[in-house]
Automatic annotation (TrEMBL):
Domain Regulatory protein YycH: 3-422
Taxonomic path: Bacteria, Bacillati, Bacillota, Bacilli, Bacillales
Protein name per Swiss-Prot or TrEMBL: Regulatory protein YycH domain-containing protein
InterPro entries: YycH, YycH/YycI_2
Species: Paenibacillus dendrobii
Pfam families (UniProt xref): YycH
Amino acid sequence: MKERMKSLLLLLLVVGSLIQSYYLIYRLPGSDTAAKAMNNYIKTDNMGPQDKVENLLYPDKMLIHMGEGKHTVFYPNSTFYKLIYTRLKGRSFEGFQRRSVENMDWNKIRNENPGIELTFGSGIPVSLLQRVMQIQPDSLFEAEQINRIWIYSAPSDSKAHALFFSTEGDVVYEAGKVDLTMQDVQQHVDFGKNWIPYAIQGNGSYYLPEKPVDMVEADLDISSYTIAQMQQSLFFDPGITRYIQEKDGSEIYTDSKRSLQVRQEQKWMSYTDPAAPPAGESTDSKDILAAVDFVNEHGGWNGTYRLDLSGIGTEQSQIMFQQYYGSYPVLDTMNFHYGTMKLDLQQGNVSTYERSLIYMKTGQQTKQMKKLPAGDDLKALLTAFSKESPIVDLYPAYLPELVTKGLKLTPVWAVKLANGQIRTIR
């Protein structure tokens, strides 16, 4: 009887302890709020895939000089572009010598000598270029940014020349040792013989096709990331964010430190973190790597992108990633923001992050071929733009439009002016 009473008392003590623990955890003041916040956490869905910086570093165009004043242009992801660029990435360049740009007759070299010219838009740091090309370490120019690589052979020389142009504009570096023969250069150049001929315009600033350029007009199925997904990705605790409706119709979500602004009509978001802590000294390369890591962790890559460093090197570096469809870039316009990701960095930390919420689905796509104007017809259309500001570049691109059934990509000529404006010709 005594043992049975002891067992019953022990059981009552255990049950009482469990009841007390329940009240301590779930019924203390404030515990309801905590439980609610935990339940409001959003389960993270798979968003865009991650990518490596090496896959984002490639020329925006490849100019092929065939001698006798003949030229053509290859664009990213096209067959000959990929073949030539893959081969060049496997060749080594070393022993660099610094030269003045003014000491070379570039028009003569361009028109008379077979060569391949790779252009990198606003430039790329040599330290990153070494990740995709076999450039031997060289203290002479490893801190430079390169916006053009020109490989050519001259009849009077026994070896190929490889020139790396600094974004400073007045300096070019020539590799003293190049793992390319004159025959290699000629073989690469020969790929352009049966391609669309281009004529140099504006003293070499841009190239104009002599025959119409075929492009695909596409109607694409799309979807979009939700605000809940972006909140989960960008805020430490999405459950404590406040919602603010702006007069212009945009929506703002903030945790009092960071803010996420969404324009629903354009499916465009802008994230700001003004209190990003300083990380000490930074370099252009570190900023770029930090930007790639940030996108990998916060939304991923919803398509094919190329690095564009239009604002790098300033106190607050702006890094842009340009989206491509096939071989051509998708333009970001005032009426419809799409086609780019933009990040501002301060000392290696992202303070602003802008991107579209839209991504292309792998479902049904409607395509049809279109021809862009060329020759004298195109030259006449360019005349009006040249009066506004000198033309510094001309390239095929896609003009995006959000339509009822999805996303429409219309082929256009993008005309870049010296004042920074982009005009389009259909």
